[in-house]
Amino acid sequence: MNIKQSIVLRVRVAFIVVTLFAGLIFYRIAHLQFVEGEKWQAKSESLNFQYRQVSATRGNIYAADGSLLATSLPFYRVVMDPIVAKGDIFDKGIDSLSVLLSGYFKDKSADAYKRSIKDARVSGKRYLILNRRQIGYQEMQAMSQWPIFRNGRLGGGVIFEKVEKRYRPFNNLASRTVGFLNEDNYGVGVEYSFNEYLEGKNGKALFQRIAGGSWKPVFDAEDVKPDDGFDIYTTLDVNIQDVAESALLRQLIAKDAAYGSVIVMEVATGKIKAIANLQKNKSGIGYAENYNFAVGDQGLTEPGSTFKLLSMMALLEEGKINLNDKIDTGNGTYKFFDRTMRDAKQGGYGEITIKEAFEKSSNVAISRLVNEHFGHQPKKFVSYIEKAGIHQPVDFQLRGEGAPYFKVPGERNWYGTTLPWMSIGYEAKVTPLHTLMLYNAVANGGKLVKPMIVEGIAKGNNFEKRFDTEVLKKSIASDQTIKQLQSLLEGVVSNGTAKNVHNKDYKIAGKTGTAQKLIDGRYTQRYYTSFAGYFPADNPKYSAIVVIDSPKGFNAYGGDVSAPVFKEIADKLYAQDLKINVKSNPKAQYASLQQDEFPFIQAGKVDELQLLCNRFGISNHYNNEEGETWVKSTVSNKAIQWKANKVEAPVVPDVNGLSLRDALYVLENKGLRVVYHGKGRVKGQSISPGAAISQNSVISLVLG
């Protein structure tokens, strides 16, 4: 075979191979299209089209007065499908749209925006993220009127992808109580404890997978709309919360303490109005709310002398002591087996009455009395702990409640010294919440109510669930014993270890507590200080507990560290709460005003009031040396004397006597939010005149 024939043969073989290979390809294409077409079409759709979750809008969390504590704000990412807009709409609007995008985002030039949009349109790209910066609702509304965008999603291709973010209008106020929930569904506070209501039910929608691994929504009749979450209404009062946190923080800084907690509760209802927990940061600088010591396990500790209230309750219920009986405390020491009980006062108190022993917080006196009357039957003493309802968790509405710990008589860890030490608040552990329950029950005439921090779950105006006050025990002791305990607690403030918080305007009842901290099995010179009580003592409305751990410096006792914080909170609440503050009684305030003769004249703008008086022939005089246009009235010799009311000063103004219209004008110009009850003129305000203004604070007015 010559060379020519060899080449021809090879060419023919190559041609036949190529022809067979090409035929195989055409066969495979035809087979895929006509035989396996449906199979691969379904596979393609399953990969590129999916029903994906559409998150529901999370519910809001409110304070008792309707103030917003947490909400989900909608933010939007601006995306565009460049091929949707018709040619004339696109060509006419692309230049203006590019200029607006460049001017708004300020990240690249108008030409760069125009080029990226046009390139995406030419290449058939269906999903173009114009900018990854998220915009707010108002910005989205304005942007939706821009060229091309104004034609909407179907006519202009604009897509505003909603991304919700949790927002707290009061920033870190009650941050641990409001709480959080992370992506792993772990969290704390109301956000976590009521997540099943807040989260709502997610929906589903059809999405298409596009270049770059992104997904864009596709309208489909089978889309399921999400069911938004319920709103949670708490019992918290933002003003009281602010007062509690501020007072606690100041004392923590002053005493360089490890942490502190405050709970303020309504006596009759058990509604918690404030709960604050501040702990020193790991850096040692500043404090933050990192753990709920008031309720949680880490807040379980030996309470110290605040527990003596229960010891006195047990002793009085047995009927074997009289508060005027004498007891000899000797030199302030007393030996129980191999351990020595000591009083805080060097040299002891000598012979004193049982009432004085409680007021002075004598460890020797209380432990001797309890050991004498219950030493042979310690189970009976423990039964009074159970009767008081503080021996176990109360199923508090926030998850993570600590379980109180008390030794049980007869078990291996019960010693001969256990009872006397337990009687003064050692060898037992309770949370501040449980201690407050005991004191609140005494303030409440013996009725033990369950603390609550959420009072309702609602959607719109429809409540799914309401939480009413729950009475755990109708009475923890006899009426006589409760009255005696109330007298003892008042005596602590007027004559005992808390004399520094005595107030001439109203009565405080309470008990100090100072417990040495047990570290590595040994009691140290570090202290857990506390004060628990209620006010006004003669008609209790609020109960509260303050605990401060490991304060530094001299006089690191409950009366010196925690009690002043209690007093600061009580003083401010007394000044703000019109129902308990007799000094805010408008009848007393306007005693000099002859209401029978001048029922309509109290306060307002001087030009309007003068016009009114002149029209009715009433003599009135105003020496306007200070140039004030707002006045209050007094009556002298059947004539009205106007006195300047300095509402323009940079403090909370006095609006008593003003009409509601004038009061709203004055207060809202100060940045205050106003709520009111009743009809007529203002006869009381919740924030005292002259107080510092906190923006967006809520002030309550009583009209009458």
Structure report:
The chain is an alpha+beta fold and 704 residues long. 33% of the residues lie in helices and 25% in strands. The strands form 10 sheets. Strands 2, 3, 4, 5, 10, 21 and 22 form a 7-stranded mixed β-sheet that branches. Strand 6 and strand 7 (187-188) form a beta hairpin. Helix 11 crosses helix 13. The longest helix has 33 residues, at 3-35. The chain is flat. 40% of the residues are buried. It is found in: Membrane. This is Penicillin-binding protein. The chain crosses the membrane at residues 7-27. Its main location: membrane.
The number of helical elements comes to 22
Fraction in helix: 25-40%
Main β-sheet, in a few words? 7 strands, mixed
Poorly predicted parts? 584-599
Average predicted local confidence, pLDDT = 86
Overall geometry: flat
- What share of residues are in beta strands? 25-35%
Number of strands: 33
Amino-to-carboxy terminus distance = 126 Å
